[in-house]
């Protein structure tokens, strides 16, 4: 079956029990004990869905458990300092999600009586919530008949119905949304199970590489498998090599072993997190310290560089330790700067490479 036959396949699959086949499989093989499943309320489902954006379940679980322990409801999250929220998010990546979650909690407290709205259009106005996340919240929390279209679901649908092209392209995305909507069960209660089953199937069986077609409940109706082209779906845009960027992070160390941390701007990489002072790799470190802080320091031997990958580029970090005098520490501290003793609890969100460098500093003393 090829793409022109997909419209017929939609009706045929729905009529021939696509969802009931999927649900039977899910009752035996699906995930039923995740910490955001069951009667946990819409708040926990919302937090989980934000964390699960671009992040696998196994990675999310310990972060989710710590997060909801510290921020058990919308009011607590809205009242918390952003620094504290980012500290709980540190290491999970994509920090805009944490900032959006915090901003959305403030909006919910101010405009929605501290409750998550049940209307799709209202959910979509909240920071960090797109159509798929909104569908998941409404489906899992409120039993509404709303589709979900995360990466796992896109892959299952693209293969089962041989939907050609990159799902990131608007025409392909519209076709996948059409499929996701038509295939839903008629009742909201079963919709939640259907959506979870689709995600579980994509995560554990219809995987991006080495899909286990022999274990798939949809194998006999999978167009890509019938064509012998499972790996061709979904289509992928040509990946360009990520450019390499370089920066220098300074470990400004005072006589008692403390190191200077600075809060990064809200926009950009590691937005709102605490990091080490940053300067160009071509800069004279001594002159930069004098110009930026009005202090002189003793430049020590540089540490080996390390690399940290982002979605669109790779950052090569050149750590440079510098000894500064006790007289300099007072003038260098401000609301956006603090002196941190390695090995203690910073009480701030730290970028992952900065954590590694601080651990290295702690181990070297």
Task: Please describe the topology of this protein.
Elements: H1 6-15, H2 18-29, H3 42-51, H4 57-70, H5 74-79, H6 82-89, H7 96-111, H8 120-123, H9 131-142, H10 151-160, H11 170-182, H12 188-204, H13 223-227, E1 244-253, E2 259-263, E3 274-275, E4 278-279, H14 285-293, E5 297-299, E6 306-309, E7 314-324, H15 326-332, E8 337-340, H16 352-364
Parallel strand pairs: 1-7
Antiparallel strand pairs: 1-4, 2-3, 2-8, 5-7, 6-7
Helix pairs in contact: 2-12, 3-4, 3-9, 9-12, 10-12
Describe the structure in your own words.
By secondary structure, this protein is an alpha+beta fold. The chain has two domains: about 230 residues, Endonuclease III, domain 1 (Orthogonal Bundle); about 120 residues, Nucleoside Triphosphate Pyrophosphohydrolase, CATH 3.90.79. About 45% of the residues lie in helices and about 10% in strands. It is built from 16 helices and eight strands. Strands 1, 4, 5, 6 and 7 form a five-stranded mixed β-sheet that branches. The protein has a three-stranded antiparallel β-sheet with strand order 3-2-8, with no helix packed on it. α3 runs antiparallel to α9 and α10 crosses α12.
What are the main properties of this structure?
365 residues, alpha+beta, Endonuclease III, domain 1, Nucleoside Triphosphate Pyrophosphohydrolase, 2 domains, 16 helices, elongated
Main sheet: strands, sense, barrel: 5 strands, mixed
Number of domains: 2
Helix fraction?
Answer: 40-55%
Alpha-beta content class: alpha+beta
How many β-strands, per DSSP? Answer: 8
Q: Which CATH first-tier class of the largest domain would you pick?
A: Mainly Alpha
Number of helices, counting only DSSP H or I runs of 4 residues or more: 16
CATH topology of the largest domain: Endonuclease III, domain 1
Secondary-structure element string: HHHHHHHHHHHHHEEEEHEEEHEH
Radius of gyration: 25 Å
* CATH architectural label of the largest domain: Orthogonal Bundle
Runs with pLDDT <50, length 5+? none
CATH superfamily of the largest domain: Hypothetical protein, domain 2
Share of residues in strands: 5-15%
Q: Can you tell me the overall shape?
A: elongated
What is the distance, rounded to the nearest whole angstrom, between the alpha carbons of the first and last residues? 66 Å
Q: What number is the mean pLDDT? A: 90
